[in-house]
């Protein structure tokens, strides 16, 4: 019987993509295992598209909590790895399955590495695995090229939404940026998640976008991935789409507020610009826009976006391998 390996990371799209380097290290270290990833069922397509896992165990809990894994089928996993967090709750959810071996920050044997709250998410989990003899490269973020055609090849993609209000830059500023980028000759499309139609329509109306450039309803992952992979530029807040741009080496401008890009930002590169005003950390799940996020003006973000675009709207669809040099 093929040995089975269960990884717990039942969080959001950005968390999944930030975890790809660690998942890729696990995949390489255990080529003979069936690797199963426990995460929300809405992310199944995205998880399989990473090429790092064989199957998905649907698992989610309210407010990004630790889900029950009691529906795990068959005998206990040969190995269970906690990439969810550093608390006993996620460790205990895996331990309840009585795996033959368990790796978690909250365990006592074998002794885990120290948890560093100021460490970048990608580096944290690669270092954790390295302490257990599993090699993972935090820069190994790329996804395979999508097989689906982009609905707007070569466009600038504006994504104004985010899971929490604290990470949502104001709609009127996104609209101002959109108008300026269009005035410079570039096609712009606005997109959002399945519950963000009102926000998408607000930005589009303020910017005077034609209907064909307004992508409502939340695109299926395959189409969204193709949109980002074929885009000239992605502009968004600190959310999953920013990580998807990095995964496809698509130029991006990401607007940070409550959380520093030193913890969740893109790799240092001339084609990924992270805008952030230093200050005390805020609540990434807060219900009002973060004060530091609001310090980023529309003119500053527009200038950053235009700096990554070819003049006069001559952008071809983005192609992998065009990434600019690291700063």
Strand order of the largest sheet: 8-7-6-9-10-11
| Uncertain segments | 320-327
| Broad shape | elongated
Tell me what portion of residues adopts beta-strand conformation.
5-15%
Mean pLDDT: 94
- Count every helix, treating DSSP H or I runs of 4 or more residues as helices: 12
Distance between the termini: 48 Å
Radius of gyration: 20 Å
Residue share in helices? 25-40%
Tell me the series of helices and strands, N- to C-terminal: EHHEHEEHEHEHEHEHEHEHEHH
SS-based class: alpha/beta
Main beta sheet strand tally, sense and closure: 6 strands, parallel
Give the total of beta strands: 11
In words, what does this structure look like?
By secondary structure, the protein is of the alpha/beta class. Helix content is 30%, strand content 13%. The protein has twelve helices and eleven strands. Strands 8-7-6-9-10-11 form a six-stranded parallel beta sheet, with helices on both faces. The protein has a five-stranded parallel beta sheet with strand order 3-2-1-4-5, sandwiched between helices. Helix 2 (20-29) packs parallel to helix 5 (121-130), helix 6 packs across helix 7 (197-207) and helix 6 packs parallel to helix 12.
């Amino acid at each position: 019987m093929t040995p089975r390996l269960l990884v717990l990371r039942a969080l959001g799209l950005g968390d999944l993509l930030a975890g790809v380097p660690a998942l890729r290290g696990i995949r390489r270290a255990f080529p003979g295992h069936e690797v199963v990833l426990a995460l929300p069922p809405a992310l199944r397509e995205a998880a399989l598209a990473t090429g790092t896992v064989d199957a998905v165990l649907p698992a989610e809990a309210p407010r990004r909590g630790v889900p029950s894994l009691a529906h795990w089928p068959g005998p206990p996993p040969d190995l269970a790895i906690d990439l969810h967090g550093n608390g006993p709750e996620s460790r205990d959810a895996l331990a309840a399955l009585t795996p033959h071996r368990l790796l978690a920050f909250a365990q006592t044997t074998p002794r885990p590495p120290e948890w560093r709250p100021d460490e970048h998410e990608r580096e944290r989990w690669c270092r954790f695995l390295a302490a257990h003899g599993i090699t993972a490269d935090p820069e190994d973020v790329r996804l395979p090229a999508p097989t689906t055609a982009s609905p707007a090849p070569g466009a600038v993609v504006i994504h104004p939404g985010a899971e929490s209000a604290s990470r949502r830059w104001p709609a009127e500023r996104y609209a101002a940026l959109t108008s300026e980028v269009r005035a410079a000759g570039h096609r712009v499309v606005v997109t959002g998640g399945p519950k963000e139609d009102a926000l998408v329509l607000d930005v589009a109306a303020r910017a005077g976008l034609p209907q064909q450039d307004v992508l409502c309803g939340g695109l299926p992952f395959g189409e969204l991935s193709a949109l980002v992979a074929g885009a000239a530029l992605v502009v968004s807040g600190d959310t999953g789409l920013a990580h998807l741009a990095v995964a496809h080496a698509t130029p991006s401008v990401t607007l940070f507020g409550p959380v520093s890009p030193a913890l969740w930002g893109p790799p240092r590169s001339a084609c990924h610009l992270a805008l952030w005003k230093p200050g005390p950390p805020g609540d990434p799940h807060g219900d009002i826009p973060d004060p530091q996020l609001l310090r980023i003006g529309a003119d500053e973000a527009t200038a950053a976006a235009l700096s990554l675009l070819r003049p006069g709207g001559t952008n071809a669809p983005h192609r992998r391998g065009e990434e600019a040099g690291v700063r």
